[in-house]
Amino acid sequence: MGLEFEKIAALEDVARELNDSGLRWAVTNGLGGYPDSIGRDLDLIVEGSLDLAVGHVIKVLESAGWVVLPNRQGWIWWIVAFRESSDGSLISLQVDLFKHLQWAFTWVVDKVSNKEDLIRRGPFYEDPAAAVGKRFMLNALSTGVTKFREKPTYLDFSERELAVLPSLLTRLSGRHWPEIVKAVSSKDLTLLKSELVSFRRKCFLKAIWTKRPIARLASAFQKQWVVNLFPRQGAPVIELTSGDDGESRKVLEKITEEFRKLVYQDVRVVEDSSQKKARHWCRLSCLQVVLVFANTPVPAGLKAEITVARDEDDQIYWKSQGLDSRSNLESTKNLKVFLLNFFKKKSSILKQRHPSVIRAARY
Fold first, then answer.
1. Which of 73, 75, 101, 321 fits 109 for a cystine, CB–CB 3.0-4.6 Å?
2. pLDDT tens per residue, range 5-15
3. Residue 225 gets which letter from DSSP?
4. Crossing angle, helix 189-208 and helix 178-186, to 10 degrees?
5. What DSSP string describes 44-81?
6. Residues 101 and 108: beta-carbon distance below 8 Å
7. Nearest alpha-carbon partner for 287 in 339, 238, 231
8. pLDDT at 12
9. By CB neighbour count within 10 A (0-12 exposed, 13-18 middle, 19+ buried), where does 214 fall?
């Protein structure tokens, strides 16, 4: 079984578990070319107890031998999991769970569509309206047409998605937007850009005077707090202090290559951390970017979880809490196994922070 199909099989098990749980849920993004391939991560909207849904995901993955890292960032859960694959390499997957997605006070996605409007793909239920909200509406409101220039495929709408676009535009803004539908259908970025100026304003005004204003205000503040004001460390932070010689560069290449195979958004090698404010680096880590600080200080607010250094014999080694490649144990000399053990340690720490979902995973 190939690595992609091992990942698909695990996510199918997650879907079956959620189907049996009685919770209402649907995929908003990430199925990609399923059943032959699947996206980097799977985004799920859930109605009902989010903690219970997260517990189900953890239970299924851990029972199949995955090391699970549950990470809550405000209103959203990022469940990242790792396992040694059948060919000995390290394989990873990610499931994101949320009850709504928002821009400012506008809840772009806030519920699962009616069952008859969902698309069944294997054990998965895909929600066309939520998919449009996640892939198109969030980016249109937050960046205008910038994201669509970077990723033109975001404007590739299926017939079902194009059919729900007019009603979604009306729900969010309070009026019809045939020109936006036309711009999306023809992929006319010039027309789309001009229409989005008024559309964004209408969405903002409607959201202020719509139902549940306190909840929307609290959610908007929480998002700013978590992502922009006080972002918390999320993805691994690595500190390399072994120098800039050929051997150190090979170790650096090996580490970054291994992490780039995993599910994280990106891997950034930072050679001068002073070029950006500490909050910038914290925000990247929060947003699932692995940071490697190569012979430069780790900024305030971040803590190096893996250190690559030289010992008294001038030999390069790497270490983490309770793990050290200088050990005589063969398992810690293998970087892949070292990383798997590192993720096991981190999993234990993260699960202690979230006892409610761990209790939910037991039942």
1. 101
2. 999 999 999 99
3. I
4. 140
5. EEEES-HHHHHHHHHHHHHHTT-EEEEEEETTEEEEEE
6. yes
7. 231
8. 97
9. exposed
**Separation of alpha carbons 355 and 126, rounded Å:** 30
What token pair was written down for 170? 């009306």
Nearest alpha carbon to residue 158 among 180, 136, 138: 136
Distances in whole angstroms, Cα of residue 155 to Cα of each of 99, 137, 198, 293, 340 = 24, 11, 20, 36, 38
Q: Position of tokens 């299924």?
A: 60
- What length does the chain have? 363
Q: In the structure encoding, which two tokens stand for residue 26, read together?
A: 């649907």
In tens, the pLDDT along 234-255 reads 999 999 998 888 888 888 898 8
pTM of the predicted structure, to 2 decimals: 0.89
Q: How far apart are CA 363 and CA 358, in angstroms?
A: 9
Q: What is the DSSP letter of 113?
A: P
The two structure tokens encoding residue 93: 């997957």
Radius of gyration of the chain (CA): 22
